[in-house]
Amino acid sequence: MNRFKDSEHLLRVTGVFLAGIVLFLCLRAWFVPKSFGQYGHYRADSITEIAALPIRHAGHEVCESCHADVLEVKHTGKHANVNCEACHGPLAKHAEDPSIKPVLPDTAVLCARCHEANSAKPKWFPQVVTAEHSQGLPCNTCHQPHKPGLKDTDAKPADSKTADSKTAEAKK
Amino acid sequence: MNRRFFITLTGAAAVAWDSVLAGAPESSPNYKVTDHWWAMLIDVDKCIGCGNCVRACSVENDVPEGFFRTWVERYQVDDMHLDDPLVDSPNGAKNGFPPLPPGKGLTGPGVKEFFVPKLCNHCADSPCTQVCPVGATFTTPDGVVLVDETYCLGCRYCVEACPYGCRFIHPEKNVAQKCTLCYHRITKGLTTACCEACPTSSRMLADLKNPNDPIHEFMKKHSVQVLKPHMATGAKAFYANLDGSVR
User: For residue A89, what are the domain limits?
Assistant: First the structure.
């Protein structure tokens, strides 16, 4: 008699499907982070998180804002374009709290990192064989690291003349 | 379905929709991701292999011992080995380069040696981000390839996919890590730790979207290449004075 007497079954199935879809959407909204998909298939908030990581190297502008006297000396020499933290190491903590005193680097080790002669180094770069050039003396015995070149001092190694950069280059 | 169930569902759906619409906060008030397109310019002729970049990077980014986000390679090539150069990188050049032991180096005609700093190329069409199954690695709108450590499963697909060998799995966190181009620094107007520490300015951070960036002038006057151009990765680590033997 009634052609739609069994339609209630269909309605129930539709209801179950709709409930399932709504549940899926709710769970999806719950589990997928809000920023996912803002720029692409990833969590845009992670960009903010990575950008908020702590800084260890303060940057030379920060150093120069206090140590202007060193900057003046440095600008007149060959190390004018060498940033402070290239030699002094990461000092963001010192920049934040100047009472944290950094340790002065040992020039016998520090200078050799760059200036120790090596056949793969570009030829224009000044190099010495430290064992012959300074016999283990710290480089700042004769040189002023902020403005390399010889200091006005008598404390020169015996044969420093024989082992300047040109001699070392000629040996290669 | 009775009325109570329907009303409960509607409420839940409304809450879910609200959270979808909420979106993410702005990353930094003064930094707009769409205003930048970061790259790195490396002048091979200026690299002295001191390892300052490697040390600075490892401190700045807490890189675990024995792994490297940037490293320096020493190449030795002679006319007999143009396609097969001698390459070494002792401890990633963290302690610089001792001279090659006698008898180890190449001695053929036309022998030359040089250093090549390496880092993530921050490819515009990066193979590593394409293979990530969970959206944990991606290229930011300002052109930096990053890893979302909270999403990374440590499946290593990206480590395999990178043609430049720039990724590694952090031994304790078990997630992929790589050079972030010091994203935490460049978004604050600083340069990267490696550029800051490079004594000869062999590395220079470059913003290709900034018309006043010196890289544009440099590229006009110099021959600049990328590594493995045949892989069409859109690499953005640009090398000046690069030898043909470098891979």
Answer: 57-103
Provide, as residue numbers in chain B, all residues whose Cβ is less than 8 Å from the Cβ of A41: 135, 138
Check residue B10 and give its pLDDT. 77
Both A111 and A171 in one domain: the answer is yes
Whether the pLDDT of residue A163 is over 70: the answer is: no
ipTM value: 0.83
Q: Name A129's Cβ contacts closer than 8 Å, sequence gap at least 6.
A: A116, A117, A163, A168, A171
| A91 and A146 co-located in one domain | no
Which pLDDT score is estimated for A136? 84
How far A85 CA sits from the closest chain B CA (Å)?
A: 6
Same-domain check for residues A134 and A167: yes
Record the tokens describing residue A146, joined without a space: 């902020």
CA distance B136 to B154: 10
**Looking at residue A6, what is its pLDDT?**
80
Q: How far is CA B200 from CA A162, B20, B55, B153, B180, in A?
A: 26, 49, 15, 39, 22
- Tell me if A57 and B201 make a contact (CB, 8 A cut-off): no
Together in a domain, A94 and A132: no
Contact call for A86 and B198, based on CB within 8 A? yes
- pLDDT tens track for B186-240: 999 999 999 999 999 999 999 999 999 999 999 999 999 999 999 999 999 999 9
Could you report the per-residue pLDDT of A111-121, keeping only the tens digit for each?
999 999 999 99
